Amino acid sequence: MATxxxxxxxxxxxxxxxxxxxxxxxxxxxxxxxTFPFAGISETLNQVVTLTLFRVAVPFFFMVTxxxxxxxxxxxxxxxxxxxxxxxxxxxxxxxxxxxxxxxxLSFYTGALSFSMPVSELLKIFIFDGPLYxxxxxxxxxxxxxxxxxxxKKFTFSFALVVAILLYLIGxxxxxxxxxxxxxxxxxxxxxxxxxxxxxxxxxxxxxxxxLILGAQLYLKRSVQFSYPVAKLVVSLLFLAVEGFLLHRFTxxxxxxxxxxxxxxxxxxxxxxxxxxxxxVFPRAKEYSLGLYILHPLSILLLYYGAKPFPFLKxxxxxxxxxxxxxxxxxxxxLKSLSKLNRSKIAPIQRAKKQLDFSALHLNYQKIKQQxxxxxxxMAVVKADAYGHGAVxxxxxxxxxxxxxxxxxxxxxAIQLRKNGIQGEVLILGYTSPExxxxxxxxxxxxxxxSLEYATKLNRKKTAIRxxxxxxxxxxxxxxPPSIQELQTVYSMKYIEWEGIYSHLGSAxxxxxxxxxxxxQQINVFDRLLSELADLGIDYGxxxxxxxxGVVYYPGLSYDYARVGIFLYGxxxxxxxxxxxxxxxKPVLSIKALLVSTRVVASGQYIGYGLAVKATRExxxxxxxxxxxxxxxxxxxxxxxxxxxxxxELPQIGNVCMDMLLVDLTKIDDLSFGEEIEVMEHxxxxxxxxxxxxNELLSRLGTRLERG
Length: 708
Ligand SMILES: *Cc1c(COP(=O)(O)O)cnc(C)c1O
Description:
The protein is α/β, with parallel strands linked by helices. The chain binds pyridoxal-5'-phosphate. Pyridoxal-5'-phosphate is lined by residues 381, 383, 429, 504, 547-548, 563-566, 695.
């Protein structure tokens, strides 16, 4: 329908299964580097495979970080992108601290650390070398990220890359090529000075930046189809093998982490891995690769002492496999106890709580995607705190599975997403005061523009603002009339970057003939306008029209995006068994509240506020700690609304109060104080009895509901 603008390529940048899975293989290679599986078979095999080819493992990890963390930043240096870098540095620092503590006894035992060390020596260890042989990785990520970010911020991408290559070359001559460097006097003096600062040059200064920046470069090129990727990979690995072989055979390598062919081989490896579609999938690959990396020295130590009485275990290959098995076991144990810890952290309900089921959210996302045309992507509508679900959690979770565009109603909602690290595009559907133009720019947001006066005021702010133009195709709420003259004026405004055009359907939720007629007319008006604009050579950017019902009732449309709200949350606006049968959505939210009191009421007594309900027999009733201030509509009182406890329905009785409501416990008389009651098992039914739609019901949930 529309041509894509320069900003509209959000086609990739999502998670890759290949990258995810290769982490485990890379971690296995690291374990091999520390256990020499082939040393007992042939020294050449050991040198060429373990000490040379397997060296791609750590650069691979760096490139993954470069791809996901530095990549988005090098594309656009706005707010959320640099935030992601800080976040990665912080996470790595925490992990580093944790691992240092874990290995502290061992570091002292091996003499790597001691109480008599001067501060300068400690700094050297913690900033560059790590207190145990494999721990250099963490400070190298941190230092590498700081350095690369600085380079990318101050200079062009190519210049940053050149600097990183030069740094790598300096490191190289202090690593496996040191025997050459040491022959030149001046150079030797230089390296001896460096080796005062750190033991090895494969560190955050010389080694990491290049791989981080190469990762970022592949992110920038993520939609490029590379030719002959496998052949290039094989050839570069061959070069690497030959280089490693020659160096080990004919020179005395000081250390063997860095090779000339290593960056090239790592680059082509990453390209191949990114599109790798493994048949067998290792669950929780990220956690296990981290576990393997962190814990394998512990297994080596256990084996060293444990295997003493069993000489046959001294075989390198056996040791390698045993190390893997033990480490996987340790990791499983660690993950289990962590998840137990997390589970015990789930606080019991204090009063009333909303709980989110993210797997349901992902399922709904998949189901809705199946309804969309191939070229249409989903824009997640997360206004009103994601319809009461929590905009930040919902957006993060959707971003993780590939959603790259979010819609909110207000500037504050948009800023909240940015401040919590949401990186996708954020479109504000409602009005933002032109006074806030600076904020729109600062947080890299997209504003909807729906009238000439508004566009003029925004333009006067002389700030480049990204906008989508809203057209009134017949709903008559917001938008420009579909008239070319007015639009031409707007499109010529200097400071506004027009990146998209959209409209909204007024009656897409009904298939009644009149509703259909109205909708089809709206679609026609929109399409006609788009083709008129295209005829005039106006690049209107990306297009979107449908919301949830528009997607399922008008599946033939194929704009760039569809703005989906309510269906993502797994509910229909109104109950509709047929549609539910077709879509099979699963509710994301469930609400539970405590039964805080029970009592028996004598026949003839009035119950609750007012005189609406009088007990006609002796009744056992309960008080549930949720009320209209929490979002249970008051007009649902005495309409046959039922709550649930396990298999039992608990009919609501009396008028819903602000903080409580009453239920009839006659049918389940052993239910006692403190039980958790399911409040909204079928959101559509609750909405129906409250004479509203689920959209309203959910978005009005009160703020004092606990989350969990
Ligand atoms: C709220 C809203 C949506 C989402 O509608 P759902 O019916 O929840 O999918 C889409 N577009 C606009 C303009 C909206 O205001």
